[in-house]
């Protein structure tokens, strides 16, 4: 067992925007033990998973993979990617595996092994669970999973923990491409494999998952390195002008949860109640006191599923007339009611999103003074067909211009200006599955494969 393990993270969401190269190369020169990055999130919404696409540009994803691959292969250490291609769907894993193969050929790399696993879950697997009276519990207030939930869902992924990454590394993989994965597991897996305590491994994963978001001043897409030992975790910013401080590291570790002191994983919980933070040097914070507490013997895998809602169009309107601005809630309620009359009997969804307005008020609340001199209103119309969605959005957007306010004396054109067309925004989806399924084996949903790639020299 090594005394320390150093893990480099260059980007909090690989490919979402390109990794900054200067701090990456500074980090690479220190020769870390692993290059790891998360490449996906459910923060991007359900539509990418449902429509089986990426939300990140292919060029940016290839750029980031190339940086990591060349550095890792030059140094001869592993590279790990989780949630490939934003969603971790099977097609995204295949795309990343192909990019790695193409880069190996392009750069004439010596042979190396690539391990990968898929995360998509077959509907029959879940219906069989229900048939056998297995309870699949909902998260965030959702009810238990039903057959109807499964049937209406277009695509489902399981969120992998550390186990498929460890298996791929055990099989000799030099590069690991994961399907949908826990952000933390991507970094915790190599540390646990190397024999470091779970509390240090999982904490390192938590602090590394968003890369330089744990540093100050704020700057995204910059490289950070976590150093894991048996007793502590130290995290260091690589950008010359960034520092990992007590405030920046603690603040990042405790965000994104209802209880800021606990992070849950399959079968256990990271307890940060007694974490101690100290400034180790000008760019590094040292963390001690975290504990990993097993909850029970039951292993559960989180499921994410996306269901198509319909086709979406977007309209845009701007308002500069002071009187209309002060009465914008009345204007939008007028547009909503007129649309309901015009499309009576049709199934649709309609949203008005107002930008530039002080505070958040419903359409029927009393209007307070709005200080903005201009409002931007985005109208979202969703229906089963593109034709209906387009007509719905056009009509609703134009009703903002036609709104009837009592103090307007027949003057036209003072209320609003419009982009006199609407924009097709593609198919839109919602989260239909956000549940946890009990499994007997943590690898039950994740079949790890391995191949050799690269030029024979």
Please describe the structure with a list of short key phrases separated by commas or semicolons.
alpha+beta, 2 domains, Alpha-Beta Plaits, 10-stranded mixed beta sheet, 457 residues, 30% helix, 7-stranded antiparallel beta sheet
The count of helical stretches stands at 13
Helical fraction: 25-40%
Query: Roughly what is the average pLDDT, rounded to an integer?
Result: 91
Most strands sheet: 10 strands, mixed
Content of β-strand: 25-35%
Form type: globular
Distance between the termini: 32 Å
**Please, how many domains?**
2
Radius of gyration: 25 Å
| Arrangement of strands in the largest sheet | 12-13-9-8-1-2-3-7-4-20
- Global structural class: alpha+beta
- Residue windows where pLDDT falls under 50 for at least 5 positions: 359-364
Number of strands: 20
InterPro entries: AtuA_N (IPR010839)
Protein name: 3-methylaspartate ammonia-lyase
Domain Acyclic terpene utilisation N-terminal: 59-413
Pfam family, one: AtuA
